[in-house]
Design brief:
Length: 233
């Protein structure tokens, strides 16, 4: 089973559209999304509609939860809170209902899908170091566990190897962010994995950052949210 996994779209429609085009070129059997469809960006309903149409599996991200009252506002930074307030005012009834009913984790085709960590999906912890990553392996039993949340892509094997696939081992894959990469590379990120041949890769996609930045400014969202896209921070 070849699965394309997207995360942290953050209402960036331009990035999502480009990524989906690239995903179709790789002809996966299915597409999964590990959360944060909304928050920070200017097109929440449009991105939710596309994800609903295209993804076989979707799990809740902390910003998705924040937009519908499932995650408290105090757990977000200032820009995040302002953007979530704005997002709440924009969500259609059908978008709200969709986010309200998303599960926090899913297991299918030898892969676990969760936004932040398999150890405690609803605590939104950051798997930001190799040490923390290695602690995750006792919390999933599938060959792959796909996460997002840090917006920094990586592939970690159970033996601590980074960014290569080890035959017969479990792998923790941070698929990176479609709509707000933070690894100093502004290109959108997603992962492609094959559950039969044990292959996985991170794919980067160029998109027109200025289109999203202009829409963020036009929506009156914080300037930093427009600026950071240009630098991938
Ligand atoms: Zn995020």
């Amino acid at each position: 089973m070849r699965i394309a996994v997207l995360s942290d779209i953050h209402a960036n429609l331009e990035a999502l559209t480009r990524v989906l085009r690239k995903v179709y070129e790789s002809e996966p059997d299915l597409i999964a999304c590990v959360g944060d469809i909304v928050g920070y960006g200017p097109f929440p309903n449009e991105c939710i509609d596309l994800i609903r149409q295209q993804c076989a599996y979707v799990v809740l991200g902390n910003h998705d939860g924040g937009a519908v009252g499932r995650v408290p506002p105090k757990s977000f930074n200032t820009e995040g809170r302002i953007a979530l307030e704005w997002t709440r005012g924009k969500l259609s009834a059908s978008s709200r209902e969709f986010l309200q009913n998303l599960p926090t984790s899913l297991i299918s085709y030898n892969a676990t899908f969760v936004h932040a960590s398999p150890r405690s999906p609803q605590d939104w912890e950051y798997v930001a170091t190799l040490h923390t990553a290695t602690e995750m392996f006792e919390h999933f039993s599938t060959t792959y566990c796909c996460i997002g949340h840090t917006h920094i892509p990586s592939i970690v094997s159970a033996d601590g190897t980074v960014n290569s696939i080890r035959e017969g081992q479990k792998h923790l894959i941070n698929v990176g962010s479609v709509g707000q990469p933070r690894d100093g590379n502004p290109r959108a990120s997603f992962a492609l994995l094959d559950t039969e041949t044990t292959a996985a890769s991170i794919i980067r996609v160029e998109y027109d950052v200025s289109v999203t930045a202009a829409a963020i400014r036009q929506a009156g969202l914080p300037e930093f949210l427009a600026k950071r896209l240009q630098y991938g921070i």
